[in-house]
């Protein structure tokens, strides 16, 4: 639950051993490479395009053979060619079937017929026209032979016989182009195409037995490509090459063991003040869900702090306050139980699963505290009623709870910034924000308790003033070695004070916790009341209406509660909190390692 300490590794080896050492360094797989060479990197990935395409096509097959290593001695390039050919042939057949289906729809209104040979009609041809119903009267002006063969609510389907195509004056209607094939012929062609599609699907299913060899081949191809790119990052200097990378301090013993016996010399140094190493977050899988949110939104800088644990617990609190129902929490837990096995693959999915489990537990606990079970409040005297200690309808208390959560959130953010800057006087500006926010909150609480409060005499106002003074004096980072710099430092302080309105707005943003939680609870109660009224007012089928309103109403409220909890819970963490607590942005630590190991 911190940012890993990194060391700068400088490794020197002989140029003739470069390829072998780089390959072993890739196997070591714990370091982030630093670019030393100025040459243009070859970013081409053509070597894997067709392999990726073939593997993606087989992985998306609805039916697969069991995972295996086939005993057939066939070159994988030949397998890839067969897969790509199957894909293209299958796409062509699907397009043909869709085209035939569309043509059948167009032709169905004309009927199942075939054009007669020209010699049977004495070189006369059959021409087909679509006549809008609104222009039916114009048919009287058509002098050449014609006949209506069909009619619907929009058009008249007209057949005209003529040696040459009639011009617009002879037949003033748009001509219909239906092609040379009849409905019977189209049905035969479609059936043949469906048979070919079945054969191609069967071949595709058979080819899925090559998924594992292709995956291993993809890993080898990517590893070789990344090794080639990594060799371009290394600096060649005469008979030697120089490699630099960032190495986690905890991996130092493993690296020293790896380097033993290799013809290399190395040195490990702490990052210089002007260097910006990558950010490597260290969180266990239990609370790693906060790290996933941080990595998705914005990584903190290397010299900042890891907000993952704060975001984890605050997200649990915010989600619980928005959902505000123990019954809905149990439904969410049931969905998690169904998806449990599917979320046991990668480290990321395991972290998401653990976060989901924590959300269920927190939402259930908060739902018990507010005494809501699908909108039903437990009866007095029961165990559940004794656990009901938070009254959602006490607007004053809920407002204090929501704003208090926001104040605590921003206080933690500014406190961590102050701790990170503890070696500089600038840290006092963050302390000033803590004092201003806490003092203003305490002053508001006092005002809520006392009708005619003497604000000037309160200790809270003195705390706010002290905080403002600290913000005014220490927000700038200038050296106070001249009158000009001192004035500019004071100007920086006045500029920073504009953040007071921002702090006020951000704290009020946490009111959404109360508003959304109250709306969710109110909707649950409303649906229950509607269901009971429908049951009691309808003699026949009342229970059906009751069940429908309960299922659909609570289902909608549950979905809205989950969506609101996720969206607004993350918003308060990743916008309001992040703006105050995380200064600067980092870039991720990417270990140079072999894929698939």
Describe the structure.
It is found in: Membrane. Keywords: Ion transport, Membrane, Transmembrane, Transmembrane helix, Transport. This is V/A-type H+-transporting ATPase subunit I. GO terms for molecular function: ATPase binding; proton-transporting ATPase activity, rotational mechanism. This protein is of the alpha+beta class and 597 residues long. Among the domains are: 116-179; 288-581, no CATH class. 57% of the residues lie in helices and 9% in strands. It has 18 helices and ten strands. It has helices spanning 18-28, 46-59, 76-107, 183-207, 211-233, 252-259, 289-297, 308-323, 326-339, 347-370, 383-387, 395-420, 427-449, 459-474, 483-496, 499-509, 511-537, 542-581, and strands at 2-3, 6-14, 32-34, 125-132, 146-151, 155-162, 235-237, 240-248, 264-269, 281-282. Strands 2, 3, 7, 8 and 9 form a five-stranded antiparallel sheet that branches. Strand 5 (146-151) and strand 6 form a beta hairpin. Helix 3 packs antiparallel against helix 4 (183-207) and helix 8 runs antiparallel to helix 18 (542-581). The chain starts with a strand and ends in a 16-residue tail after the last helix.
Q: Largest beta sheet, briefly?
A: 5 strands, antiparallel
Helicity range of the residues?
Answer: 55-70%
Distance between the ends: 25 Å
Secondary-structure class: alpha+beta
Indicate the radius of gyration in whole angstroms: 37 Å
> What is the strand content?
5-15%
Number of strands: 10
Q: How many DSSP H or I helices?
A: 18
The succession of helices and strands, N to C, reads EEHEHHEEEHHEEHEEHHHHHHHHHHHH
Q: What's the overall average pLDDT, rounded?
A: 87
Net shape: extended
Low-pLDDT segments: none
């Amino acid at each position: 639950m911190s940012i890993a300490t990194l060391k700068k590794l400088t490794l020197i080896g002989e140029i003739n051993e470069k390829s072998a050492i780089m390959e072993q360094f890739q196997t070591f797989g714990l370091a982030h490479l630093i670019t030393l060479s100025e040459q243009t990197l070859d970013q081409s990935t053509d070597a894997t395009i067709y392999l990726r395409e073939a593997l993606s096509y087989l992985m998306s097959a609805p039916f697969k053979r069991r995972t295996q290593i086939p005993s057939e001695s066939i070159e994988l390039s030949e397998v890839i060619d067969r897969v790509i050919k199957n894909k293209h042939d299958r796409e062509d057949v699907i397009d043909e079937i869709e085209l035939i289906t569309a043509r059948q729809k167009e032709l169905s209104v004309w009927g199942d017929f075939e054009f007669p040979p020209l010699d049977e009609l004495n070189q006369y041809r059959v021409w087909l026209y679509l006549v809008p119903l609104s222009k039916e009267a114009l048919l009287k002006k058509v002098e050449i032979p014609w006949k209506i063969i069909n009619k619907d609510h929009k058009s008249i389907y007209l057949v005209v016989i003529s040696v040459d195509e009639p011009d617009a004056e002879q037949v003033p209607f748009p001509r219909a182009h239906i092609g040379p094939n009849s409905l019977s012929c189209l049905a035969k062609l479609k059936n043949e195409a469906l048979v070919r599609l079945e054969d191609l699907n069967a071949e595709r299913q058979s080819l899925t037995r090559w998924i594992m060899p292709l995956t291993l081949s993809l890993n080898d191809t990517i590893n070789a490509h990344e090794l080639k790119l990594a060799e371009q990052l290394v600096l060649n200097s005469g008979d030697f090459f120089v490699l630099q990378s960032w190495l986690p301090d905890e991996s130092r013993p493993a690296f020293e063991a790896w380097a033993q016996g290799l013809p290399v010399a190395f040195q490990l140094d702490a990052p210089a003040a002007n260097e910006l190493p990558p950010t490597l977050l260290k969180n266990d899988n239990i609370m790693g869900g906060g790290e996933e949110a941080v990595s998705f939104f914005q990584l903190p800088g290397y010299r900042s702090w890891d907000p993952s644990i704060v975001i984890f617990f605050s997200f649990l609190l915010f989600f619980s306050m928005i959902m505000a129902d123990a019954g809905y929490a149990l439904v969410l837990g049931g969905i998690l139980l169904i998806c449990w096995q599917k979320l046991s693959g990668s480290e990321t999915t395991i972290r998401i699963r653990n976060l989901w489990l924590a959300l269920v537990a927190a939402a259930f606990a908060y739902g018990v505290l507010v005494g809501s079970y699908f909108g039903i409040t437990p009866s007095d005297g029961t165990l559940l009623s004794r656990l009901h200690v938070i009254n959602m309808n006490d607007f004053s208390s809920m407002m204090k709870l929501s704003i208090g959560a926001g104040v605590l959130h921003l206080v933690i953010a500014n406190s961590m910034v102050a701790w990170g800057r503890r070696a500089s006087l600038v840290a006092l500006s963050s302390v000033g924000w803590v004092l201003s926010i806490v003092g203003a909150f305490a002053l508001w609480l006092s005002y809520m308790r006392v009708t005619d409060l003497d604000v000037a005499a309160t200790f809270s106002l003195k705390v706010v003033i002290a905080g403002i003074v600290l913000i005014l004096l220490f927000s700038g980072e200038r050296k106070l070695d001249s009158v000009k710099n001192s004035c500019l430092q004071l100007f920086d302080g006045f500029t920073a004070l504009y953040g007071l309105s921002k702090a006020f707005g951000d704290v009020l943003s946490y009111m959404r916790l109360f508003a959304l939680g109250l709306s969710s609870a109110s909707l649950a109660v409303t649906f229950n009341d509607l269901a009971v009224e429908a049951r009691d007012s309808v003699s026949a089928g009342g229970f059906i209406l009751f069940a429908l309103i309960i299922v659909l109403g609570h289902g909608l409220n549950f979905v809205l509660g989950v969506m609101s909890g996720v969206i607004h819970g993350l918003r308060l963490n990743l916008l309001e909190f992040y703006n105050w607590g995380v200064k600067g942005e980092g870039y991720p630590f990417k270990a140079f390692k072999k894929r698939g190991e």
